[in-house]
Specification:
11 strands, six-stranded parallel sheet, Rossmann fold
Length: about 375
């Protein structure tokens, strides 16, 4: 076993975080090889997402599809932190832990005695990693739908003549989780050098703001307030535009350069558009985007999706299929991202991997066990880590 692999496999992570952002960080660490023990609230039946179910899911099971999205590879202990014995169990775990993942409100964190100041006196190597909503003095709860609205994403998303629209995934949670992962890896590097832990906080609000990238720059650098434009791009054309093909499928174009536009025009049989004064440069195409979309739509609907994408791909013209989820996971590269497992009741289960990057030399992603039931054997889990 490499030194790097051993480093991660020796990490003990205690996770009290709930829902998506914090737990997705825990799953990431589990995939790196860490032992992740999920502490769930016994008073409410565990992580809230255990009950977030589709109509088609078993109402009696304590494992929902939503819960499985970020909880592979963990062990679970249900604790009532208002009970002194259960509180002692958590304290003992944190005394041994390397990382504490949590999203307690600051007032509850202080009331439970789980502030970094208190915990670091008992365990100097501990890294406390916390998801917060806004700034610390703002008591509002942080839920993704609200955060998408507060950070501008909902206002920007949707058709020009339609209402603001929330993204269909918990986008801000995902973004905040990535921020916290980066902070954790830096904190682990620092601890390797100094032996000291640290306190980390990732704000849902600020994570959303940092991800506005070019749309934020449109306002900050160009004094332009972006509005809803559907799938189109405010400064590139045709980029993000969706077209229907002859077989009633859909494709999306992402033309970023003038040579790519010339190639596109030749492939769909309208080479004259490449020399049309309205479309010769990107600036001109953006100014005349509506007319260009209509002209391209007439040509693209003459081709089947598969045939057209084959031709565009061969010419290195950026384009892709608009795929439903079943079509997404029919692709070989998506199949490589799937965890396979079996629940305690015998049901097979699949989930998406946390890690999609090529691992450094000496480190490999771990094959994870399925998400845990809430009634796991507490004594067995504690004995396994020496408690």
């Amino acid at each position: 076993m490499s030194t790097l692999q051993k480093f991660f496999e020796n990490l003990l992570v205690i996770e009290t975080a709930t829902i998506l952002a914090g737990p997705s960080v825990g799953m990431f660490l589990a995939e790196l090889g860490a032992t992740v023990i999920k502490i769930e609230n016994a008073k409410i039946g565990g992580d809230t997402t255990r009950s977030w179910k589709l109509k088609s899911e078993d109402p009696e099971s304590d494992i929902s599809a939503y819960f499985t999205s970020v909880n592979w590879g963990k062990q679970s202990i249900a604790l009532n932190l208002s009970d002194p014995t259960d509180k002692q169990i958590l304290t003992a775990l944190l005394d041994k832990a390397d990382i504490f993942l949590q999203n307690f409100r600051p007032d509850l964190q202080a009331r439970l005695g789980l502030t970094y100041a208190a915990l670091s006196q008992r365990n100097q190597k501990l890294i406390s990693a916390q998801i917060i909503a806004y700034e610390e003095q703002d008591p509002r709860p942080g839920f993704d739908a609200v955060m998408q609205a507060e950070t501008g994403f909902t206002y920007l998303n949707g058709q020009p003549d339609g209402p603001p629209t929330k993204m269909p995934v918990a986008l801000i949670d995902v973004l905040a989780a990535h921020q916290l992962k980066e902070a954790l890896l830096l904190a682990l590097m620092e601890r390797t050098l100094t032996g000291q832990g640290s306190e980390l906080k990732a704000s849902l609000f600020q994570s959303g703001i940092s991800a506005l990238v070019n749309q934020a720059a449109n306002y900050l650098a160009a004094d332009f307030v972006p509005a809803r434009i559907g799938s189109d791009h405010p400064s590139i054309s045709p980029y993000g535009s969706i077209y229907q093909t002859a077989d009633s499928e859909q494709i999306i174009l992402a033309i970023g350069t003038d040579p790519q536009f010339v190639q596109l025009c030749h492939i769909v049989g309208c080479a004259e558009l490449a020399t049309d004064p309205r479309f010769q440069s990107n600036v001109q195409r953006v100014a005349n985007n509506v007319a260009l979309k209509d002209l391209l739509a007439e040509r693209i609907k003459l081709y089947s999706r598969a045939d057209l994408l084959t031709q565009l791909g061969a010419a290195s013209v950026p384009a892709g299929a608009v795929r439903a989820m079943d079509d997404v996971f029919a692709q070989p590269a998506a199949q490589e991202m799937i965890h396979h497992g079996q629940l305690a009741d015998g049901r097979t289960i699949r989930g998406v991997r946390a890690i999609s990057f090529a691992m450094p030399v000496g480190l490999s992603a771990k094959t994870l066990t399925p998400p845990p039931r809430l009634d796991q054997d507490r004594a067995e889990i504690l004995a396994r880590i020496g408690l």
